[in-house]
Structure formats: structure tokens, C-alpha cells
User: What shape does this take?
Amino acid sequence: MNKVLLIDGSQVLLDITKRILERAGYTVHCAVGAEGAREILADYSPDGIVLEVDLSDATGLDYYNELREKTSVPIMVLSNNKGDELTALQAGANDFLKKPFDYEIMTARIGAMLKCTEKEGTH
Assistant: This one.
């Protein structure tokens, strides 16, 4: 079973997304903000990360760079701002999804992202 870490500034959105991904068969951990993610990642190795740009204690794109220094797992970036897409992809994000999004599309894209990394052997 694939393990996913969701990082967002909103507990409500984390709860909704977690339920949907768990129904799709994922094991999901949630972190509110960058500090919450740091604490979880100290003891948890996800197969993929879904990172919202609008965090409560950091900008997601700055935190993305911090994550990349520590892990090579695939990262999907979420944002309300379409302008963040190019920045995220140029920084090396594996995928980008503009909010609001369809949860079925999100689930399918996470699955595709994780399958690609399994085939590449980066897992």
C-alpha cells in the first residue's frame, strides 16, 4: 500500500483529502504546515508527498526546496495560483494541480506519479 504525506495549511482540507485518498487505498499521514511536516518526516518515510503552497508557517515553494534537500520521493504541488505551476515544475516538482480540483483527478495523478517513480527505481 502506498504511503502519502499531505501537507496543507488547513486541517479541514487535510481531513477531506485524507478520507478520499484512504478510500482509494492509500495510507495517509497529514501535517499542518511545514513544522508539522518536519516532525512527521523525522519518523515516517512516505512514498509520495502532496504539498499545498499556502502553508500556515512557510511558503510551500520554499518548503519544497527544503524537502528536496532531504528526500527524492515524488512531490505534487497544489496551489490556488496558476502562476505557481511554472515555478513548481521548474524547481523539480513531479506534478502540479491547481485548486479547486476534482478529487478523482487528484487520486489518479497521485497514482500515476507513484507508478512512474516505481518504474524508475527511485523508490
About this structure: The chain has five helices and five strands. The CA atoms of residues 95 and 109 lie 8 Å apart.
